[in-house]
Amino acid sequence: MKQTNRQFILSMIMLGALFFIFGLVSWVNSILVPYFKVACELEAGVQTYLVTFAFYIAYLLMTIPASFLLNKVGFKRGVELGLWILAAGAMLFWPAAMTRSYEMFLAALFTMGTALAILQTAANPFVTIIGPRESAARRISIMGICNKFAGVISPLVFAAAVIRPQDKVTMELVQKGELTGAAKEQALDAMIQGVILPYVILAVVLFIFGFVFYKSSIQDIDPNKDNKSEVEGAQDRKSILSYPYLVLGVLALFAHTGSQQISIATIIDYAQSMGITMLDAKVFPSFTLGCIMIGYLAGIVCIPKYLSQQKALVVCTVTGLVLSALVLLTKNVWVGWFGMEARLSIWFLVLLGIPNSLIYAGIWPLAIKNLGKWTNLGSSILVMALCGNAVMTLSYGALADKVGLDNAYWLLIPCFAYMIYYATCGYKVEYWIKRK
Q1: Among 151, 188, 239, 268, which has the highest number of CB atoms less than 10 A from its own CB?
Q2: Which residues contact 401 (CB under 8 A, 6 or more apart)?
Q3: Is 195 a member of any domain?
Q4: Quick check: pTM over 0.85?
């Protein structure tokens, strides 16, 4: 993809803004889960994690249609449409709040997930193709910083913009069982309506940015031409499934996104199980995302100058497995840090953000390399793997209902074990059956 330095910088800025938006609307789910639990009077762990499920299952259901849409209208126009659909999903929060309908909130979140399926299908190959393949992980790391910076601030901004002083009183009274009957219903109605103004403002910003992106001077891309295969005999492959390293990479990305979402989306509930209030616990997702940003900064400095993206992937997956084991081993050890009494395991859960930061950036370039005419579809299938966010958090909720929040973190172990396999062996598999 030939472009001037000015075009490259402009493209990176616009893509950085896109990834910031991804983070802004995605990572706020970590605080929407406990917020809806109170406002919509939810009980079971599985039911509360439907917030994450409804949002991310759209990646599984809508990414292939998104690929066809991008083929038809082009990547730039696809980004514009994706941002407008995202704006429509944000606007749905208005009627959902007016009726305090959990089902309508889930529909709004599914709409926003559909928009992100389109946007990520367009944006991820753009970042990979826009420069040399060997530095793709570095560019993905830069995008990751934009994404995770939004993730750090979004729970804090949401709490500041939506949870008013009277809402804090309402939440405390509901959790203590001291607010009942008509007074409770009236208080919860008033509380949930606090989401309307922030999401309407977000919708307007997204709609305007859609125009700005499409009218910008960013070059459109054609992945079919810009990611030609260099593997002998690759052009003879009849199906996208003929690329084992892609299929295995999809499973690795599924395991990664699912395990990462578990570590972030469940951490507030885990903190509350230790007696920490939700308003104090809201800092834990930001701590985790702060660790992820530290990892991204390390990736920008070290890859590929000091460490190849494949070796970085090995280091991160092994570290993730070790920290996951420590989460389980220290669940009965208590410490008093940052003015809070909490189990040591929650801090290892926070530290998982550091190795998690570069796993996505390591898997994507290895899985999408040399796909040629299959690049667009391959990218779509990789984006579908982000449904791991939905499936794994729902699985965590179901398991937590049976064995407890702390023991449910056993789900992290097989995820990281498989990622280690892909980082060391899986990415090398060119054919399902070894060629003579």
Answers
A1: 151
A2: 44, 45, 46
A3: yes
A4: no
